[in-house]
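Q: I'm writing up a methods section and want to include an example of the input and output format. Could you take the sequence below and give the corresponding predicted structure tokens, formatted cleanly so I can copy it straight into the document?
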Amino acid sequence: MWLINAYKKEKNNPKLMQQYQAQGLSDHDIAIFRSTMNEAKVQIKTWEKSVKKDADLQVIERVTGGLKSAKKLFQLIVKNPRTALLNHDFLYKNLPTMVELIETYENIKSVDKLDEALLIETKKLVKSLSEKIAKNYESELSDDLEKIKNEVENG
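A: Here is the clean output for your methods example:
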């Protein structure tokens, strides 16, 4: 929830709005960006609620760190909207798919008579996507480190 509260504060922050404008975003661009990030916020919040109430999803999170990585990636994008373009798969594919997968998982789990193999397959897909999101965040950090390294070396 800390992520959501922090975003609410930043969303109305005039200093942040000036930063966005300084990065070349028009008012229209900022409106689209804010809408996209609000949608991502809702998806992350939905994912987080599901993890909190399900032991198997908690295990997947401990192993992959996907949800935590999603929150951190969200924060990076909020601070630098240009990275939204680089992370379009995360915003437009991975997060919506994760929410859809978790809803499917919860539906399967709620019906006792369904095939256990279907439940296992769904958990595997959740884990795989969670790992992908964590790797995406790791890649973003790696790119940042490479930029810093180049700046230090080429000074």
